[in-house]
Amino acid sequence: MRLSIVQHLLLEYLTVMLKSTDLLKLQTVSTPKTTTKLVLGENEDNEVEEEEKEAAKQAEASEGPRREDRLEVLVETLLEAGIVSMLHTREGVKAALAVLWICPPKDRKTLLKSLKTCIVSTAENEHGHIFLMGLLDAVDDTKLLAKTVIKELLDDLEDVVAHPHARKVILYALAPRDRRHFAPALLDALIAPGDESPFTKKPLAVRALELRAPLVGLMPELLRLAASDEHLIPLFVGNAENPAPLEDRSRIVLLAEILIRSSVYELELSNAMSQFRRTGSKEEDRLSVARDKTAPIFTAADLEELARLREAALRKFVTAVLAGPDFKPVGLKPLSRDSVASAEARRHLQAQRRKRALAIAESEGIKKRKVTVKAFENTEEEEEGAANEACPEPMDTSATSEGGLPVDAPFLERPEGQLLVSRILQSEKKSDSHDFGRLICELVPEQTMQAWLTCNRSCFVLVKLYELGNASICKQLEEVLSKRHDLITVSPLPGAKVLAKHLNLK
Fold first, then answer.
1. Rounded CA gap, 265 and 427, in Å?
2. Which of 242, 277, 354, 449 sits 20 to 30 Å CA-CA off 443?
3. Between vectors from CA 382 to CA 381 and to CA 386, what angle results, nearest 5°?
4. Is 255:170 a contact under the CB 8 Å cutoff?
């Protein structure tokens, strides 16, 4: 409790200083004040000098160090002591972010170096991962980020992707401040206050694209991971033999961002500027400077490499997940009024799933790294946990989700499965690029595509595929689906009815 009070007071002081004009004086060299003296006699001159010296001493004794000097000493002290110990509480993270925002580039480099060997443990911490998100948001030196933060994340990439907290750092690098993935209240309270920092020069869109460059290494490694036979199903998709992704559905969200943000359309600066930007008045100035910059972020070789890796990842996803010959929807039993869960009950079930996902990720990570102690220890949380150990909260360990689907349900029958495929197809429709749609038509067998007509969610995937408007894709769909004219026209599924209208079937 005492530490939290100190961190809170530190946060209050740094917040005030962040809004002060004295902040810019950290990088300026103060010059001594000069005074103009009148021409006096020798005795009078000596008397005046003595009076001025005495007045200067009194002023110095009363005023003390200048405000910017006090701030500089505070920052140096915090950097020397290290801020890792601050990152296990919400108040500590807020204070650490405030330190980051008031640090000039030279001090930010020192701050990043102090995190060496602690990046992964910080990312897996409940509060520490937010500080890493702030680093990716505010630090201009992309090479420094690649050598410190990104490098350590890539060294343990499988564990990072599997961990619910650490995964958010990767997700933030791909889609910074995306309010579909990060709570608006969290962004407004913890990230946005640094938008007026005078030491952050690059706009958010430029930062996001630079972090996807092959030179940084993050996006290529993520695409290779998604294209791997060893990792696609166990790490991202899940099945009966690999149930962890079924408990932790946000892994699918990361997979969707990997496949979407690596497209040529998403790598264009103008499109990134329309999606990612900070609040405040300084961001528009940053964007103006970025628009005038002629040097492209990606070279032709960079774009070619990312396109090749993305093609391999998309092809692997279609063949391993969508093109299976045994598509058999399990179906959902109609829910009675008594069985319909309230909003509060659904939130409770989701909280249970998050707890199970976190427990699974931490257990797997400990087995791989043979870690015997946690990276951060919060004594207050430990005491609270010990008090509740006698009567732990019951965990739902059934094989079905709150939607009623068993673990062996087909991927497209799962809500997160339909979400992933629909999002990729929507992105392709916006960019007028149909790589994913063509691969589905090319690699999914005719019998499997016709079997999709027996499930409402997969029917809507076919609708999204048809709505791409590509002549070749539409023609192939008409040829395959018209053979099941009898099934489509009599189907009670809403998705099948929409599909029948598109195909002009009566």
1. 9
2. 242
3. 115
4. no
Give the C-alpha distances (Å, rounded to integers) separating 482 from 29, 268, 456, 503, 506: 78, 39, 18, 8, 11
Per the listing, tokens 């930062």 go with 207
Exposed, middle or buried, 455 (CB in 10 Å: 0-12/13-18/19+)? Answer: buried
The reported pLDDT for the residue numbered 362 is: 77
Rounded to whole angstroms, how far apart are CA atoms 451 and 328? 7
The tens digit of pLDDT for each residue in 238-288 reads 988 888 888 888 899 999 999 999 999 999 999 999 999 999 888 988 988
Cα–Cα distances in Å, from 371 out to 115, 284, 362, 367?
19, 46, 10, 7
Task: Say how far apart CA 82 and CA 122 lie, in whole Å.
Answer: 13
* Identity of residue 33: K
Sign of the dihedral through C-alpha 206, 212, 215, 216: positive
Number of other CB atoms surrounding residue 257 within 10 Å: 22
CB 401 within 8 A of CB 410: no
Q: Which residues contact 86 (CB under 8 A, 6 or more apart)?
A: 7, 92, 93, 95, 96
The rounded radius of gyration (Å) of the Cα atoms in the chain is 29
Q: Which two tokens stand for residue 30?
A: 């103060």
Q: What is the mean pLDDT of each run of 10 residues along the chain (506 residues)?
A: 60 63 50 40 54 57 50 70 84 90 90 93 95 97 96 96 96 96 95 92 95 97 96 91 86 96 96 93 88 83 98 98 89 52 73 80 65 43 40 36 69 93 96 95 95 95 95 95 92 94 84
C-alpha 457/C-alpha 329 separation (Å) is: 10
Residue ranges per domain, the chain?
74-322, 411-502
Residue 321: name the closest of 418, 223, 250 by CA.
418
Rounded Cα gap, residues 484 and 479, in angstroms: 10
Task: Please spell the DSSP secondary structure of 211-260, one letter per residue.
Answer: HHSTTT-HHHHHHHHHT-TTTIIIIII--SS--HHHH-THHHHHHHHHHH
**What's phi and psi for 68, nearest 5 deg?**
-70, -30
Rounded to an integer, what distance in angstroms lies between the CA atom of residue 292 and that of residue 207?
16
d(C-alpha 197, C-alpha 105), whole Å: 11
From CA 210, how far away is CA 213, in angstroms rounded?
Answer: 5
Measured CA to CA, the distance from residue 233 to residue 251 in angstroms comes to 11
| 3-class secondary-structure state, position 187 | helix
Could you report how far apart the first and last alpha carbons of the chain are, in Å?
A: 70
pTM over 0.85: no
